Amino acid sequence: MSDSETVGAMRLLWLIASGRAVTRLELATLLRQPQSSISVRVQALLAAGVLTEHGEGPSRGGRRPRLLAVNSGYGHVWAADVGSRHLRVGAMDLAGNLLCAWDRPLDIAAGPDAVLAELAAAVHRHAGDTELPGRWLGVGVGLPGPVDVAAGTVTLPSRMPGWRGFPARAALRRMFEQPVEVDNDANVLALGQARGGRPGETLVVVKAGTGVGAALVVDGRLHRGRAGVAGDISHVRIAAGGDRPCSCGNRGCLETVGSGAALVASLRARGIEVANTADVMSAAEDAHPTVTTAVRTAGLLLGEVLATVVNFANPDAVLLGGLLAGSEVYMAAVRGALYERCLPLATRELRIERVPAGADAGLIGAGTWALERVFDPVASAPSAASGRVVDITSRAAR
Ligand SMILES: [Zn+2]
After folding, report:
1. Rounded to the nearest 5 degrees, what angle is found at the Cα of 346, between the Cα atoms of 380 and 263?
2. Domain extents in the chain
3. Average pLDDT of the chain, as a whole number
4. Looking at the domain covering 75-190+360-397, what would its CATH class be?
5. Ion ligand 1 — residues with CB under 5 Å?
6. In angstroms, what is the span from residue 233 Cα to ligand 1's centroid?
7. What is the CA(138)–ligand 1 centre distance, in A?
C-alpha cells in the first residue's frame, strides 16, 4: 500500500482544520505514521496551496515546529441533501465549514429528471449570488436510496419511483460540468461523522427519517461491503413486522413498522391526519398521546435491530440523524432498547447520540464526500478495482 492510500490528504486536512494536530510531529503521532512520510504529504499540500504555514509552536527540544493551517480560501464544494420530501443545498469550504444553506420542498416521486434539474437549478441560482472562497471544486449529493457508488447509479430504490438504475452522477456531471459524486444518504451522513475521527474508531451511523438506513465506519473509513449495501438495516425482518409486505419484496422488515413512512401510514389508518414524517414529529412535539406512543415504539424497534449490530460490531458510538432522531422520546427509546438488549460490556462505554450538526449533517457529509473524491481519489475509491493511482500533488495544484 502506498502512502496515498494509508494517509489520505483529507485525513490530514480534517485533523489540521479541527486543531487536533497542527504540526508534522502531531500528525505523525496521531496517525501512527513515520514523520518522514507525513512531511512529504504536507510539503505537497503546501506547494499546492491547500495548506499554509503560520508561526511556530513550542520546541520539544529541537527546532520549533511550524504550525500548519488549512487554506480555506483555496476552494469550495457544493453539497446537496436530497430527502423524500425536501432538498437542502449548501456550500462548504476546504476546512469543512458550511458557508451557506437553503431548503426547499421536493417530491422524490417526481422522478430523477425533475428532481435533479431542480437540484442543479437551486445550486446554480445560489452559486450565482453568493460570494464563495476560491474555485468551485465539485459537487457531492446524498440520495435517499441505495446507490452503486462506483457506477454512480441508483439501485433498487424502494420509495423512489422511476429512479431504478438511473445514472444520477452522469446526469449531474452534465448539468454542472464539475466533478460530481453521489451516494446513499446514510453513507454520506457517516462520512461527515467520520472525518477526522480518532484512529481505530468504529461508528454505527443511522439515518432515521421517512426511511431508515445505517452505515458502518471502521477505523475512520466507511465500510461499504461487496455490493455497497453494508449497513442497510431497513430490511431486517422483525417480529413486530408480522406479515406486512415490504417494498423490497420480503415481509415484516423494520421499514414496514419502524420508518417515518410506516408511522405516517399507521397513524393515518387510525384517523390521525399526518401527511408526512415532519407532521408526525410536530404532533409528537405537541405531546399527542397516540403519536408519542407510536414514535416511542418506532424507537424501540430500531433499538431491537441495532442491538444485534452493537453486539456484533462493538462500536465506540451509535450516532443518529434524520427527522425521527430529533425526538427525545425516540432517542430515549433507542437508548433503552440498546441498554436492555446488548451485552453490558458492549454498552458500558458506548455513546448513543444525535449527530451534532442536526439538519446540516447530511449536507456536511455530502460535501465531505465530494472533497474526499477530489483530493483522495484512491483512498476514497468505492472498490479497489475502481481506484486509479493519481498523484495528489498534481491534482491539487491543477
Ligand atoms: Zn424490506
Report:
1. 75
2. 3-70, 75-190+360-397, 199-356
3. 90
4. alpha beta
5. 235, 246, 248, 250, 253
6. 9
7. 34
Do the domains spanning 3-70 and 199-356 agree at the CATH topology level?
no
Cα(282) to centroid of ligand 1, in Å?
A: 27
What cell was used for 360? 446540516
Give residue-wise pLDDT tens across range 198-251.
778 999 999 999 999 999 999 888 998 888 889 999 999 999 999 999 988 899
Q: Exposure of 61 by Cβ count < 10 A (0-12 exposed, 13-18 middle, 19+ buried)? A: exposed
Over residues 117-176, the pLDDT tens digits come to: 999 999 999 999 999 999 999 999 999 988 999 999 998 777 788 999 999 999 999 999
CA–centroid distance, 183 to ligand 1, in Å, is 20
Span from the CA of 238 to the centroid of ligand 1 (angstroms): 10
Query: How far is ligand 1, taken at its centre, from the CA of residue 245, in Å?
Result: 8
- As a whole number of angstroms, the distance between CA 245 and CA 251 comes to 4
User: Residue type for 188, please?
Assistant: V
Is the per-residue pLDDT at 287 higher than 60? yes
CATH of domain 3-70: 1.10.10.10
